[in-house]
Structures are given as structure tokens and as C-alpha cells.
Amino acid sequence: MLQFELLQTDGHARRGRLTLNHGVVETPVFMPVGTYGTVKGVLPSSLEEMGAQIILGNTFHLWLRPGIDVLNQFGGLHRFEGWNKPILTDSGGFQVWSLGEMRKISEEGVRFASPVNGDKLFLTPETSMQIQRALNSDIVMQFDECTPYETKGHLTTEREARVSMELSLRWAKRCLDEFNRNENPNALFGIVQGGMFEHLREESLNALVDLDLPGYAIGGVSVGEPKPEMQRIVAHTPHRLPANKPRYLMGVGTPEDLVEGVAAGVDMFDCVMPTRNARNAHLFTRFGDVRLRNSRFRTDERPVDETCTCHTCKHFSRAYLHHLERCGEMLAPMLASIHNLHYYVNLMREVREALDAGTFPQFVAQFKADRARGTT
Amino acid sequence: MLQFELLQTDGHARRGRLTLNHGVVETPVFMPVGTYGTVKGVLPSSLEEMGAQIILGNTFHLWLRPGIDVLNQFGGLHRFEGWNKPILTDSGGFQVWSLGEMRKISEEGVRFASPVNGDKLFLTPETSMQIQRALNSDIVMQFDECTPYETKGHLTTEREARVSMELSLRWAKRCLDEFNRNENPNALFGIVQGGMFEHLREESLNALVDLDLPGYAIGGVSVGEPKPEMQRIVAHTPHRLPANKPRYLMGVGTPEDLVEGVAAGVDMFDCVMPTRNARNAHLFTRFGDVRLRNSRFRTDERPVDETCTCHTCKHFSRAYLHHLERCGEMLAPMLASIHNLHYYVNLMREVREALDAGTFPQFVAQFKADRARGTT
Lengths: 376, 376
Prior knowledge:
The structure is a homodimer of 376-residue chains. With 376 residues, chain A is an alpha/beta fold. Helix content of chain A is 42%, strand content 20%. In chain A, strand 15 (247-249), helix 10 and strand 16 (268-270) form a beta-alpha-beta unit. Chain A binds chain B through residues 36-38, 40-45, 65-66, 69-70, 73-74, 80-82, 298-299, 301, 311, 315-317, 319-320, 322-324, 326-327, 329-331, 333-335, and chain B through 36-38, 40-45, 65-66, 69-70, 73-74, 80-82, 298-299, 301, 311, 315-317, 319-320, 322-324, 326-327, 329-331, 333-335.
């Protein structure tokens, strides 16, 4: 099931509510990424404590490990990983794309060798749907080909982007057929492709809208293109999608990217940046970013962000986090991941409150000024 | 301050209550080890949740990082690491001893090069007390020389063990003098040495008892000796210590060692085994040990231990833990550390309940039978 209620708008920005099989998600929302059935270094109870509403899983990874037999045995990913709220899974398309020269794409699907054990594998729109059914994901993503920014050393041409986009469209139809073969409590999202070409984005979008899917994503951004190129596509595409359906910008991005995305009409975001940067001692805060390894934090008794209410900022100082990082202690990435995810989740909560209060433009101005101010 | 109340005895086994500057500790007790100001991979809130009453810190490590200036600035280790309950710190003696050929022992103290940055350092009974004062440890350990089981390739001789034990005694007196130079809310423990020689253990013990310290530890066990040798010393020494003062067996050991230690009259234990083994996917349970990497757990929906009430066993299956371990996910050591520490902490809670109920011998018999049964 999927219901989407549009509660409030401000320009292209939207305040919504998404009802899924495992619960309600207030939008705009940031979704922490749990590739292998765990948001790296974070207990599910910590995710609940910080107010995470929905998390991601990766079809490709979970197919390889633990494997579909195990996930079937557990009745899906929720019970396996101890998370009872909604889950969205990507289709495996992006991961297969990341394999680069190690995979071979045909009309039928993608052949590749397992990076875990070398087994020859074949992923198709149909198998992607079957795996995501085993995962029992609340939101199932179509299997697509992620159009790269560069192809064989040159910028992807319009011709190449069109061929790729049209393949993703044919795969969208096969996904929908396979998805509908069984009764299904979950929802299938289509993915708009088209590379850096606005007219291809529109062709992709229109054809997907004809399939009347319950939600749509914008894929093929954050794939190596310069920031202005990404911004051009993010400004172009989201508001052209149906107003009564949720819109998901895949794999984006910095806090600034998220706020710009909301302003452009996006409802849902995911990104590994908060957890990956946390493991590199790079923390996001209201007043710019903090590099914990900087020796100026050695004696700094303040929390990472004095306005932050996360577990890390409530209990620990910059000096302590700097010390843990310096000693290579596991608690350093643990506490940094809690902080960064809380920052992202809370940023979207503040966005929702501003939209509710009709003060989104002021919020955006303040957000930009605060972030530019930098940390003292 | 230190008050020790002896509530119950059964043979040499004792049920007690220790009141320290930062709170009350029910004994027998297991103390998780937090070397660098963190119990590796475990949030302080998880330690509280599992019922940990007191944790360790390492004087040697904390002296090097973050350094005494930082700890002084925070008014001690408690606020720095976010733990408000009692803390015991070792004196650095054992760590300096572990440096092997890299250190030089004299009457005055130990000279060595910092393993962090090569700085030349000099640790003495006086500096150990000064560092532990900066840490504001509820229980301060005397600086001692840990007598090794083997010296230069041969079993440590009676002569060598005596020289070492007598040095530790002279250092105990210097520690007490330095400790008493300032008013102090904390308590200094002496450490009985004497190697594998019962008469030396008794000489050490008697001389330390003459100093009328508030508590005593047994050191120099778990230093490479065969298990029966350790058992011989653990059976010999604890009950010879003053009945009205707490007794701490340093660095021991397996669950079986702890239960034997209690039966021999020990009140307090610490060991890195639960956390270190957790990081190697080795879990302790009521019914023997579980090696999570074993592929038979791939589809095992049961918790690690069905009788266990820890966060890990309440929320996650063996199959999930096996999967996390196989994928090298940080959550694997995190969940395993929570389980193992809970097992140790809870084992001592069960011991206390048995002593309260007057059923300690039955408890020991059941404990041994259960552990020997093995996991299904």
C-alpha cells in the first residue's frame, strides 16, 4: 500500500505524509542507508531514538549476502535486521552499474561475477522484483540502468543517454508486470533517467507517468557530474512529476543539496554521506562542518554543535571525540554516525516545521547563513 | 571514601556492598575494561542498560592520550568519558611491564619510550598517584611491578620473584605517602605479588595488610602461566586477605575462572576477554561458547542465548549476527560486545542472588553443568 497526502506547499516545496505497509512517513524525509541490512555502526534503537522514519536496504548486496533463502526464512528484511518501520530498497541497478567493466548489459538484464565469491550472476528486472519481494520492502525500486556522466572517456552523448533511458523504460514495464504477478502490500517506484539532457528527462518522466506508478524517483544524478550539472537537473525535473505522488531524489547529497532539493519539489532523499563522512571524522553541523581530527579540538569541552539534541552532543565533548578518533577507538565512528544521521534527519524535521508554519523561505535563508558562518 | 559491608558468606565466597565516591557497587562484581576512556565499541548508555556498576580505565594509556592536562580540565575521567558511576584505574604497572625490553626498571621507577610518539617517559609510584588523582578514580591502584611467569626464557625463580615483590612493597609505601599528601575522596588498593610462590604471596600480603589499605588486589596472575598454576594461587591467596576489605583479582578471566574466584573469596574482577573475544566473533553463553563465524548459524533464527536478556539477544538472531560478521559490518562487534559484557555482568548478578539465597553451591553445580552442555 501507499497513500500520499499533500499537506502544504510553498513554491515547488512540499510538505506531505506517506502511508506505507510498515507505517507513516512525514515528508520531506531523509532515509539513512543500510546497505547490508545495517546502517553502518548504528543500532536500530539509536535510529529510532533520533527519529529516523524509513531506512534503505540494497537489493544487490542482500541478494549476495545473506541470500534470498535466509531473507525468505525471516519473512523479509524487517525482522532480519530488527527494524519495524518502513524500508525502501534500491533495485540493484546502481550497484551493478558501479561494477564497471566487470558487468555486461543486454536487453534481458545484466551478467556479472559476484564480487564476494566470483559466482556468475544474472540480474534482470524480474529477478530484482523477486528479490525485493523476498525483502518485503515497503518501497520497491524498478530495475534500471543508471546512465553515467561519462562513457568510455567522453561525456555521455545524447544518443547514448537516449539508448540507456529507453532500456530503463522497457525494464520499468517488465518490473511492473512482474511486481503485479503477485498480490503485494508494497509500492513500486519508477526511476526517471535521461542523463544531463532535459528533453530526455521529460520523455522518461512522461512514459513512466503513463504507467501510473505510486511514486517516482530521479536517478542518474550524483554519478560524477559537476555540481552545477546536478543542480540543473534537480531544478528541472522534480516539479514536472505528478503532484499527488511522492518524489525521491536518489543518492543526494550534502545538507545544502537536500534543502535545494526540497525547494525544487523533492520529498525523499537518501545518501551514504552522513555515515561515510562520520567514519572519516567529518561531522555536519548547523554552523558548517567539523573535522574532528583537527588538534584545536583537543581541549574543547563543547559538544560538536551546541544547538544539537543528538545522543552524542548531549553526552560528549569535542575533546572526547577527538581523543577517541586519535586512538582509533570504535566509539569514534559510532558517535559520529549518530550525530551526522541525527543532523540529516533533524534537518528534514526543521524543513517540515518551516513548511507547516509557512516560513520555508526564511528557513532557507537562515540555514544558508548558519552553514556559511562556520564553526567557532 | 570506601565502605565495605560484608552481607553474606558461604565458605570463602562473599556477598558484599562497596560504597565509593561515585556510588554503590554490589559484589561480587565484574568490571568492564575501558582502556582509553571507552569500553571498546560500547556506548556508556548500553553499559548502564546492562547493569554495569563500575568500569576500569588505564592510567598508562590515558596519561599518553588524551594527557593529564585534558583530564584535569574535565575534572577527571567521569565527565570526559560520560560515565557517572564508579571508576577503578590500574596504576600503569602492568602496561609498563608489557613493554618488555622497551623499558628499564630501577628503584625510582620505570623509564620507557612512549609507544605513541617515542617521547622518553618516566613513571614512578608518585607520578602514577598524581595521574590517578587527575583521573579522579574512585579506586586507585598502587604502582607495582608485575612479576612475570617467565624471566629471560626460564621460569621466574624464587629469588627473582622475591626481589620483584619487595620492590612492589616499597612502591606501595611510596604510593600511600603520595596518595595521602592531598585530601582525597578516593581509595587506594594494594596489590599482592609474589609470583607462583605461596610463601612470597603471604609475605607480600602481610606487609600490605600492615599498611591498612582500604582494599587489596591479587596481581601477577594471568601473565602467561598454565591454568593450574593460576588456580593454585587463586585458591591460596584471597581468603587470607582481611575479611572486612574488598578483594580484587586482576585481569581474570573466563566465566569459569570468575565463579572459581568467587568461591575462593574474590569480590571484584576485570578482564578484556568479553570485549576482545566479541571482536573475534566469540560469544559466551550460559550453555557454552558460540563462534559466530560457523556457517551452521547462517539460517539460525534463535538468539545467541535463549535465556539471555541482553539487547542483542532481545532483538537479533544468530543468523543476523553471522551475516554481519561475514560482511565485516561494525555492528557485529558492537552487538557481540554488548552480549558478552552482559553475560559477565549478569553472571555476577546471578552469583549475588545465589549467595543472598544461600544456594551458592547449587548455583556452581548448575553453572558448570550448563556451560559443559554446549550450545545446540
